[in-house]
Fold these 2 entries.
Entry 1:
Amino acid sequence: MSPVDHTNHGDLMSSIADPGAAIVIEDLGKRYGAISALDGASLTTVRGQIYGLVGPNGSGKTTLIKAICGLLKPDRGRVEVLGLDAARDRHAVRKHLGYMPQTPSLYDDLSPLENLRFFGGAFRPPDIGERIRETLEFVQLWDRRDDPLHTFSGGMRQRASLACALMHDPELLVLDEPTAGVDPVLRQSFWRRFAELCDKGRTIFLSTNQMDEALRCDHVAVILGGRILVSETPEAIRRRGKTRVTLEIEGKSREVELDGYEEELPRLLEEYGLQKRVGRISLKRQSLEEVILSLLKEAK
Amino acid sequence: MIRHSLLIAARINRQFLRDRRYLGMSLMVPLILMLLLKYVIDSLPGLAHFGVRVSDYAILIAAYLVHFLAYVLSTIVLVRDRTAGTLSRMFVSGYRRREIVSGYVAGYSTVAAAQTALVLVCTRYLFDVKIERDIAAVVLTMLALAIVSVGLGLFLSNFARNEGQVFPFIPMVIIPSALLSGMIIPVGDLPTVLQWCSYIVPLTWAVKVLRGVVVDGSSFYSQLMPFLLLLGFGLTLLVLASFTLREKE
């Protein structure tokens, strides 16, 4: 490492000591010709959390992630990562950032070992051999470490790609649809790994088009047309959903839709005086997925 | 910086060793082309009547082949890295533009060096051109030409968004190189405008050095100027390539 790198490192460490945000994005805009990929997106993520970016295809997720990694020249707005400017200080930021692109983006003719040595070797992690072993065991590819990647299934390639992002044990992980095309069993194991990393104090920023995965994040942003529609905890988003109340009165059932059942249900039941004739009350709340989908629909 | 470039060069060479078919083909192609040339020329005894000595052209054609192959290969690989996302991943993994360009030059120069060795063996034994006396000058010129070829390939690949768009760039370099470099038609016989054009064709300078040293029997020292110009072309192209290598969309 050059002396300049050390200075940058020092700056970064002082900003990491500040318990503030991991990523701050303000009014980010980017057009590709006639298409507006990002249109004033703003968000803030807290360190040590899993932050999920949820949205349909073409909503601007990948463009936003590229901006965080310093791979985008935005038309307007500002991106700050770990207290540094994502574009100007990108070399300093990347020392603490692990990036998993949407497609595996590895060398297919090389083995996981060779890919990790190449992509993970640039930042010179201490004891690289041991680190490669640890990382490949973490994604359960140690047994296949010497086989060329073109012999791997899609899910195995995704795991190798995740391993590359983890190699230098970065403070911040930026994962672009890490579970796309991954089978349900493997997806569970990915999420277990994400939770483990979070417990170790790492920050994870990931995108997904699987609405149910939003539930597993600490914080969720819904993106559409390059704009953030909402950015809340999954529970808060769910609370935006309607609650369907089915009352069964003397054998006849009646359905009522409530906006927030905690407040509205007692009032609804007052109407009936909460008498003994109310035999049963069952609640069916909209799932997080349904809430997000209806949010997207309203925005369109 | 140097460590990162070496990591890239090592990765490229490992890929070559892994891809046996590709490695075999990139070594066989120059060999087959030299054999073809030999066969065609041997079947045209009439050439001698016009005062054409085939052996005068063999070393120039060898240089042309190395230039052509190294240029095409390096154009395609960088575009492939861009479309596959491995270029972005390299950037985020801590590799910088100048390290990537110098790493690619180092990696592909080793391949070009192997091709050079092969075509030189062909030149020596198939066409019976005595190159031993000037072997240092010939090898240095060929290596400088390989750097030019890789630099040119990396620089022009910036203008292609996908592998398909690379193809128009191939004849754009290869045909003017064949016509203007003095390899077939002496530069002095060209119209003035084309003579000026020939000065910006890097192969012109390699042809000048090789013809001077191998065919005319002059010393390498007397050909130092065109050699330095060739090297200058190479370094300029590398600097251009590392400044134009797009990191951000």
Entry 2:
Amino acid sequence: MTQLGTPTEAAAQPSQPPEPSKPPALRLDGVGRSYGALTVLDGLDLTVADGQILAVLGPSGSGKTTLLRVIVGLDRADAGAVHLAGRVVDDRHSWVRPEDRGVGYVPQEGALFPHLTVAANIGFGVRRGRDRTEAVAETLQLVGLVDLAGRYPHQLSGGQRQRVALARALAIKPRLVVLDEPFSSLDAALRAGLRAEVAGVLRRAGATAVVVTHDQDEALSIADEVAVLRGGRFVQIGAPADLLAAPVDPDIAAFLETGTLLTVAVDHGRAVTPWGDVAVAGSPNLGDRAVILIRPGQIRVHTAPQQTGRPARVTGSEYRGGVSLVRLRAGSDDDQDGPDLLAGSDEPLATGQAVWIEIIGPISAWPAT
Amino acid sequence: MSGTATIVPAPAGDAHPPPDRRRLSLRHRHSHGHSHHRRRARPSTVVGAMVVAFTLAPLVFLLIDAHHAGWQEVHTVLFRARSAMLLSNTGKLVVIVCATTAVVGTATAWCLERLALPARRLLAALVVLPIAFPDFVVGYTWHSTFPWIHGLMGASLVMTLTSYPLVYLPVRAALRRADPEAEGVARSLGLGPWETFWRVTMRQVLSGLAGGCLLVALAVMAEFGAFEILRFQTFTTEVFTEFQFDPAAASALALPLAMMGLLVLAGEAVVTRRTHPTGPTVSRDPVRVKPSTSAGAGVLVAFGGLVGLAVVLPIATLIGWMVRSQRTTLPASTSLAHALASTVGYGAGGALLATVLAVPVAVMAVRRPHTLQRVMERGAYLVQGLPGVVVALSAVFFTTRYAYRLYQSSTLLIVVYALLFLPLALVCVKVSVVQTSESYAEVSRSLGRGPLASFALITVPLIAPGLAAGFCLVFLSSVTELTATLILIPIGHHTLVTQFWAYQGAAAYGAAAPYALVMILVAGIPTLLLNNWFARRATGATGTTGTTLPVLT
């Protein structure tokens, strides 16, 4: 749905500004990690304020899991420093063991202890006694699994297991919760529902969280802030709305599936597209070729001829929940070749239908490489 | 089955895909890292290295011992005419028994896996039973019933009847893994049934067959008791005899024996490395052909013969001897109870020690799979190539020279059992460790438990099935171990094995029989437990498929 540029759930919820007196829950200063000649993390800087949910978004192999393991204390950084709530937990001189960090960890697939019941799993990290009973009950309530306290992990569904894994991490009242691809093992239908639920639980618990994912929908919907990791570096950090509005490079734009990317000629600050010339936003130093981004929301589709519109035809159409996602090609002739433009339309359009389109500038553009 | 050298190789250990390849491969690169704070070795590696050093000790002591005896002595003993005879005897027997077990084991496996036979499950249970019978007991039942059975012929017969399950089990596992569709495809391409069998079926089971034959070779080379009864001389029987008269000559003779064992072991490593577990991607029900009435009857008669010779005859003979001598020579029940108690005590001690020692080695090999750790882990299997008599000799050498208080102590016997059968425990524990993701312990750490608490609360319960299986395997092997027991048993103590040996040596067959029966019973209980465990594993409760199970005597 992000293709249509609709506002995301998270964007609608304003992130809580950090109190000036309180140190950030997590701070990374130039954190690096290499395995021999292979640099996996390359000087990462990051601040996560108390109560914030941050998503680390990156393709597989970008170093996401290594970053999580460094934060939890299962791996050690070989450059820079990791601070938790203002305290150094990992730098060249000192290192705090994972059991002394108070970072709740939800690994991929949950890793529920198979020989313990749901209640015993959740209570595992809590000191024995009245506190434990209370903490378990409270946490079960929080994730809505009170009825399942006596079950064993193999008797739970995939979604329930993830919720128990989250509850187990939250039961220790952690300073920070980290989740590694928490929804990747679930099927698509379950994923969206559980995502909203997990985000809800984290917010109700007032937890600070770092979620690692390769799924842009997941990152944009769950997080207050998204850090895009590529080749061991953060290439952009920002609120989901900012990321969608101003991706720093075409790769991020493509990764976030924000719209159609094209390499076109530039003439006097205007991009020359098959659908007419369009004004380019910002930077004038584009040279004579540029990569442009046309968002679906910037395209107006008319079914009747228009003075300002350029002729185009529909090459593909997919009807989804009240809007059509359509592919448009320039010209009225069927044999005409060229790139397809992704657009949205309120009324259903048929493949082969002739339409007239307008592109509303200014559009994002980057120098072509 | 002799005490040593009795596992079916578990390519399982290495063939299992690690739960998270990506993470493991990262770790692997980590080994080249030079960061200052990562020099400190992991505790599992340190303890694992110590255990491996312990398992290599017999080999070292053997060399020191030979060195003490003087290389002149070694040279004299090795190059006398008698050694040539022993070598030829050992060689002939290895070749004959490998061939017969290959035929019997493969045929049995193929019939049970590919033919729709009546009472198939019962037959399958019966044909593995001989694996629980000690070779020397089977040798005794044959020789006491048919005194004319001895020499090369007798040794070949007895070893075939006790060792064929070592071929049967891996071949049957290979047949089960093999895609039965391949045979159908071969037929559709114009190959006849025999051509299909040779060119397609045999190809698929070849590595299992070769691995099984190598284990048979190790068993034959290490066997002592059965050959002593059947009056057939090999290197192992000679080492034992020399030990009683000329210990220096014994350790000289042990050298080539150890070398042959290690060579066979190296061969086994090569064969199992070439095993590619390429089973069918989809598990389907095996295709079983219904044989014609006459062919089916023929196969059943053959099975009847095999079970009769390998299972019924030994048991019937033992019972027969007991019934015949009921009133006269049967041992007092107190003597039997005493022998049973010490057998169980020594066996359980050895099993416990071996299982505990196997844990750090398994954890080291699975969790930190760098080259060094892999090499060390393989080192722990070397002891498998050493016949029990060789390990026992090196223990005698070590204690008489450096730790006399341990000589002929219960502790030494238990330590030697653990040493001899550590590879068995290791195979079982390793399978469990491989199947247990490391993230459980990691989560436990993140929840505030230290490394030791995480190990005790999480790792140990999760690998408990492997620990139990390893314990059972070592226990039943120790209970039926003969050579090391005879050499190291503390003076004044008796076990089922030593009592049986003493009585049968004096031709008191009736008095020996009850000890053999109780021995089979005591060894049979862990066999049953093991079977259960393997059966549960094989049904895929843990989601792993195609597990090659370590199988044992």
